[in-house]
Amino acid sequence: MSSLKRTWGAMRIVALPLTRAQPPQRIITFYNFRLIAPLPLAAPPPPKDSQPPGWLAQKLPKEGVVNWASYKVDTMWSGWGKSETGSWRLRVFKFGERFLDKLDFEEGALKRIDVKHAPPTSVPQDLAGAEREEAEAAWAKLEVPLVYPPSVSSAPEALSELRELLQQRIPLHKKGFWIYLLVAPLTAPFMIVPVIPNLPFFFCAWRAWSHYQALRGARHVDALLQSNKIVPTPDTTLDAVYADATVDLKEAAAPADTADAVNSEKGSSTSKPALIVTRDSLGHAMRALEMKPDEVKDVLRAYEQAMNRIR
To answer: Where are the transmembrane segments (predicted)?
Structure first.
């Protein structure tokens, strides 16, 4: 395997429409951006005359400052969830978990994209000679499949919905990043409160980081889309999600819901967006895509938010 193939990973995007709506209302779609990490490169042997790293390099964490800080924060947050009943740490943890459930599921999906290991949006500029020729040949063949259920969507619709999502999220996350970054210094007076850490500052810093990560992910996917590297790919196994949901929704439909469904079929522009999945039917997608526990949690959060948005 060439060194080039080992430096970037592969990506697969799965689109699961959650609602159906008449234009100009936007369809709510859950996207699963799955990265296949590249194989690690063997570290080259150090030169014989190399000098030992400096004091600063020895003190910095090997996994990088950002990854180290993220791990520390996750560890601390998990520890707060195991605090004694009635303690302020446990109360803050429970409040934070409820707040996380209310965050847009689109933000959570985009910020999971590891841009460093994702397929590149162009040929790396630091390559030359045979290595650059190899990179250009590999990038020319690069394809990122956009998997969608053919029973409820089409290739043009899948691309259009992804494009609309990115056009909406990029300015939103850019604005959110700058707002929280500028507000964070204003929370400095809370540092004088004894015992309890400066929660407002940590909240603003975390929200700025979250918006920044989602912004990076959205821009990366948008660049791949602009380069025509994202290819719609139908997957009939996902159709089971909607076949089962149709049966479940018909059995649970009330007379008013039935009237709305009739109006939707007639093309009425006044019809409201409607769910086309159920919690149980999404289980097919989770099994077919072999989702991890955190991905399952993301799907269920998206379903709950979609239900609340169309009410």
So the answer is: 177-206
Average pLDDT over residues 59-72: 51
- Cis peptide leading into residue 273 (ω within 30°): no
Segment 33-59 shows an average pLDDT of 59
Spans of all domains in the chain: 10-39+97-309
What's the CA gap between 261 and 273, in Å, rounded? Answer: 10
In tens, the pLDDT along 219-255 reads 999 999 999 999 999 999 999 999 888 766 766 665 5
First to last CA, the chain: 52
Count Cβ atoms within 10 A of the Cβ of residue 67 and give its class: 0-12 exposed, 13-18 middle, 19 or more buried.
Answer: exposed
Question: How many CB atoms are closer than 10 A to CB 95?
Answer: 10
3-state helix, strand, coil in the chain (%, to 5): 55, 10, 35
Distance CA 149, CA 230 (A): 16
Q: Is 89 exposed, middle or buried (0-12, 13-18, 19+ CB in 10 A)?
A: middle
Length of the chain: 311
Please state whether beta strands 274-275 and 19-20 pair in parallel, antiparallel, or not at all (unpaired).
Answer: antiparallel
Strand partners, 20: 274
Residues 227, 197: Cα–Cα separation, whole Å: 46
Whole-model pTM: value is: 0.78
Secondary structure class of 183 (helix, strand, coil): helix
Helix pair 199-226, 155-183: axis angle to 10 deg = 150
Query: pLDDT by residue (tens digit) across 135-180?
Result: 788 888 889 999 999 999 999 999 999 999 999 999 999 999 999 9
